[in-house]
Amino acid sequence: MRLFSCDGCGNTVHFDNGACIACNRRLGYLPGSARMTALEPSADGWISPALGQGFVFCANAEIAACNWLLPAEAPGGLCPACRHNRTIPALTDDRATNAFRRVVSAERHLFYSLLAWRLPVPDKSEDTEAGLAFDFLADEIGPDGVVVPVMTGHADGVITLAIAEADDAAREERRVQLGEPYRTLLGHFRHEIGHYYWDRLVRDGSRLDAFRALFGNEQQDYGEALERNYRDGPPADWRNRFVSSYASCHPWEDFAETFAHYVHMVDALETAHALGLVVSPRVAAPEQLDLLVDFSPYHQRDFAALANAWPPLTVAVNEINRSLGQRDFYPFVLSEEILSKLEFVHALVAPNRSPPVD
Prior knowledge:
The two termini are 14 Å apart. The protein has helices at residues 94-116, 168-177, 185-203, 208-215, 222-232, 238-241, 251-275, 303-323, 336-349, and strands spanning 4-5, 12-13, 26-30, 35-42, 45-48, 53-57, 69-71, 85-87, 133-137, 140-141, 147-148, 153-155, 158-162, 278-279, 291-292. The radius of gyration is 21 Å and the shape is globular. Helix 1 (94-116) packs across helix 3 (185-203) and helix 3 crosses helix 7. By secondary structure, it is α+β, with helices and mostly antiparallel strands. The strands form 5 sheets. It has a 5-stranded antiparallel sheet, with no helix packed on it. It has a 4-stranded mixed sheet with strand order 8-9-13-12, with helices on one face.
């Protein structure tokens, strides 16, 4: 994620900011140009003095759940991210509303990446078959009083996400129960959108042969594969072949996990680039861990540049986490086979790349 500046006073601001802490101006994000702008109230909504244009906020701004802007002629509308939300929880109390805010915050971070790559994101009103929709659902109580948890997943362009994943304690409990080293709300979004783009870019993009050469034949029975994974666990050599143990259960899950990790990689490298982060370790062979991200990761066509920059960043942040008594920020190791899969994802999104916008 890049850093932004308040065009009213020049102060550094961040992607989720709703106001500048230096000049107190209201801030809004323009997804079309990927910039923040300071706003002043106007008769019809808000005006950006720097741009000389009028805007209105996404309808979800009413509950402080979105800071994205729309053209002034679209009052009451939803932004390019929120318009995909087909089902949301009943916002009847602070707990549900706060959970929804966390969910759509992660969703906006996802769409920041999708829009940066100019990937297709039609909603169901634009394309009933290939359109994308989100159902954010709460766990239900069965007739016997037992909680029936919502299963996060993807089917036919609809991504279902359990609203309980917005609760840190509940998500941590599920992470431990499932033996996962890493489980985040944003990670769920990035994984499930990987399934969506498998349909769009692999299956519908005539890339099945290339996919099967790397990930295997997705025609194997999915239900049996999942049952085998939960019964027997991953193969002994999974770390050499898959980015996570779950990725080993089926080629579809391998692709979704790989897609998610590719987005992790690019977005974290962009953050390092925005911060001017340089890593130059004082070890015997420092060149192995040198880091200088002097390129725009979202617009980088050379996968090798991304792959070479990634390990030093993960080592540096993991070491900082350990020094603070925290779990590794990135508990994964990328083998050559995994890097080949990541490069496959890179090639899928590369044709949609556009030059950086200042």
